[in-house]
Design goal:
Number of strands: 0
Oligomer: single chain
Distance between the termini: 56 Å
Number of domains: 2
Radius of gyration: 19 Å
Protein name: DNA alkylation repair protein
Pfam families: DNA_alkylation
Number of helices: 16
Largest sheet: none
InterPro entries: ARM-type_fold (IPR016024), DNA_alkylation (IPR014825)
Strand content: under 5%
CATH topology of the largest domain: Leucine-rich Repeat Variant
Length: about 240
């Protein structure tokens, strides 16, 4: 069986200090920024994913070690392995394993280990979202009211799984909770998910939501949500804001 240390060594072998400095700037790791204190060793996402594929059999204990690491790429790799394990369990129809992985994911979330936007975006819909598709989704509304930005982003990004199944209902419910959120990472995420509702589910559903809620939406959210509209339409909806 693979170990966390072996995965860490594999990442270290391709780490690039120059890349690390660039990533630390990109992910806003300075004091007072949303990623303050996060540590990068300089491995790009495609490389992290490729390496993670070799460690699909990591144990919960090893995954915990990686999630608790100060190194961003270690946490990303752990989540990539968890997504793969969840997808394998889904394919096998192993509901017990799916439930265990979701609880494991939520535990990592609660202790603050899914703590940057790429970590959320690469995992929320694939684990929590897929699990909740045919189950009650109340916890997403509760997460949307969290004081922790990453929990709020998990709430809205999890609904991407439902959108891909043709169901926009929960996206609109969670979006309404988050419409007046002041954090730009939430404003962007909400706008992105609304845009996907229009593209993948029902354009008129999106139009109706915007017309009802335009005055409550930030310019950022409205801009993302209408990104695929004609210029004249975007101008019109901005006039309602």
């Amino acid at each position: 069986m693979s170990s966390a240390r072996e995965l860490e060594d594999a990442l270290a072998a391709v780490a690039n200090p120059d890349q690390a400095r660039e990533l630390q700037r990109f992910f806003k790791t300075r004091k007072g920024q949303y990623g303050a204190g996060d540590v990068f060793i300089g491995v790009r996402v495609p490389e992290v994913r490729q390496i993670a594929k070799r460690f699909a059999d990591l144990s919960p204990a090893d995954l915990n070690d990686l999630l608790d690491s100060a190194v961003h790429e270690h946490r990303f790799a752990a989540l990539a392995v968890m997504v793969a394990q969840f997808q394998a369990a889904s394919k096998a129809g192993d509901e017990g394993e799916r439930e265990r992985l979701v609880e494991f994911y939520l535990s990592a979330m609660r202790r603050g280990r899914i703590n940057n936007w790429d970590l959320v975006d690469s995992s929320a819909e694939y684990i929590l979202g897929e699990y909740l598709y045919d189950k009650p989704r109340d916890q997403l509304a509760r997460l949307a009211k969290s004081g922790i930005v990453w929990q709020r982003r998990i709430a809205i990004l999890s609904t991407f799984a439902f959108i891909k199944h043709g169901d926009a209902s929960t996206t609109l419910e969670v979006a309404e909770v988050l419409l007046e959120d002041q954090h730009d990472l939430i404003q962007k995420a909400v706008g992105w998910m609304l845009r996907e509702v229009g593209k993948r589910v029902d354009r008129e559903l999106l139009v109706g939501f915007i017309e009802t809620n335009a005055k409550r939406m930030s310019r950022v959210t409205l801009g993302y949500a209408t990104e695929h509209f004609e210029h004249s339409e975007r101008v019109y909806y901005r006039s309602l804001n």
